Amino acid sequence: MPYRSGRGTCGVPFHVLNCGVRRLALFEESTDYRSFIACAAWALHRAPVRLLAYCLMPNHFHLVIQPVEDGQISTFMKLLEGTHSKRWHANRQTTGTGAVYQGRFKAFPIQSDRHFYAVCRYVERNALRAGLVSRAEDWPWGSLAQRCQKLHGLPLAEWPIMQPADWVSLVNDGETPASLEAVRKSVATGRPFGEPSWAVMAAGDMGLNSTLRPRGRPKGEKTSGVFFDEKGTRRLF
User: Fold this and answer.
1) pLDDT tens digit string along 19-41?
2) How many domains does the chain have?
3) How confident is residue 230, by pLDDT bands cut at 50, 70 and 90?
4) 131 found inside a domain
5) Residues 100 and 91: beta-carbon distance below 8 Å
6) What is the pLDDT, as a whole number, of residue 224?
7) How far apart are the C-alpha atoms of 197 and 109, rounded to whole Å?
8) Are 36 and 26 in contact (CB under 8 A)?
9) Residue 107: its H or E element
10) Which label site among 12, 74, 94, 220 has the fewest CB atoms less than 10 Å from its CB?
11) Which of 24, 55, 53, 29 is nearest to 126 (CA)?
């Protein structure tokens, strides 16, 4: 993933995600979700990072976070994924048998304007888009349900821009195909998500210029980083 040094990241929201290795189910029971949430709460108390939105899915997770200091995304994710991996193996008595996550997390910066709304809607709508619930706020393992029903106790921070009064309706109404494709492009490439001029500036500040270049894939090369549903048949993002 393109995120490396963390320079210039202070105060900038990021979409961060990862999935289980070889389509591994990270969360099978409610206790699995609660264990990850406990690890996230623990890491948030130890790294200068603010949690803005999240959604936990059966074999992957999405976070929208805002580092308070440069370079702290890696610190936070190391604490979170390291602790969660140990708990995951301990709960299944499989300690020492291999990796839990497919690899290093993916992340891309977000401009704090309509693009921030687009990413948060994309994240909080994830379970609804996958057909797991009929309304986004009914998925108990995400920030939308937490705000609506005061669940889980994760310390959600105030957004960098005002949340629309009709936010729940906006999430349930869904994205336009163009908006959805734009977010997915940043997921796949790690390029900054915002207006073109902002994306160029952010890429330069953060050492992400390579993400702005056209990308190709040799014929026959398999795509990595695909997140599957519980049947392993389609993308969830």
Assistant:
1) 998 878 999 999 999 999 999 99
2) 1
3) very low
4) yes
5) no
6) 43
7) 14
8) yes
9) strand 106-109
10) 220
11) 55
**Is 147 within the bounds of a domain?**
yes
- Is residue 166 exposed (0-12), middle (13-18) or buried (19+ Cβ within 10 Å)? exposed
Map residue 167 onto helix, strand or coil.
helix
pLDDT at 202 > cutoff 60: yes
Q: Is 32 helix (H, G, I), strand (E, B) or coil?
A: helix
Residue 188 lies in a domain: yes
User: Which CATH number characterizes residue 41's domain?
Assistant: 3.30.70.1290
H-helix or E-strand spanning residue 121: helix 114-124
How far is Cα of residue 136 from the mean position of the Cα atoms in its chain?
Answer: 16
Tokens 């490396």 correspond to what residue? 4
Dig out the tokens for 230 from the structure.
């519980």
What's the mean pLDDT when you consider all of the chain?
A: 87
Domain that holds residue 107: 14-209
Amino acid at 23: R
Of 179, 191, 162, 88, nearest to 125 (Cα)? 179
Indicate the pTM of the whole model. Answer: 0.87
What is the helix (H) or strand (E) element at residue 64, kind and residue range? strand 60-67
- Residue 218 φ then ψ, to 5°: -55, 145
Q: Is residue 129 part of a domain?
A: yes
CA distance 106 to 165: 30
